[in-house]
Amino acid sequence: PGKQMAIDADLSAGLISEEEARERRKSLEGESNFFGAMDGASKFVRGDAMAGLMITVINLIGGMIVGIAQSGMSFADAASTYSTLTIGDGLVSQIPALIVSVAAGLLVSKAGVEGQADKALAT
Question: CA 23, CA 93: separation in Å to the nearest integer?
Fold first, then answer.
């Protein structure tokens, strides 16, 4: 709302033309749509991470049950074996979420900067 009001104030003060105000509004609308889409993407990433954690817990409990019931392992052996496997699986399954989160962060940080992305990220 503040940027829209600034455009309207500049237009009424005669600092910008009607055409320039139209271009600024269009640019502002595109920026607003972009950040709205990124908000949805961040909610998706958060949900994906929560699902990954739940799957990790289910894998740990299920693995221990299978180890004790089917393989005849003791509780300590099953916990040791399946906790190691589950943690490895959980870490590997979170790598795509990490990559998406980093990419989204880079996109959002670049969105408000003019010029080349590599120079904007280096500063």
Answer: 44
pLDDT confidence band for 42 (50 / 70 / 90): confident
Q: CA neighbours within 13 Å on the CB side: how many for 59?
A: 18
Separation between Cα atoms, residue 74 and residue 6, nearest integer Å: 70
Provide the pLDDT confidence category of residue 100 given band limits of 50, 70 and 90: confident
Its sign, for the CA torsion 81, 86, 89, 90, is negative
Which tokens belong to 123?
């500063």
pTM above 0.70, yes or no: no
Contact (CB, 8 A) for 64 and 78 = yes
In whole angstroms, give the CA distance from residue 63 to residue 73.
Answer: 11
CA separation for the pair 29, 31 (Å, rounded): 5
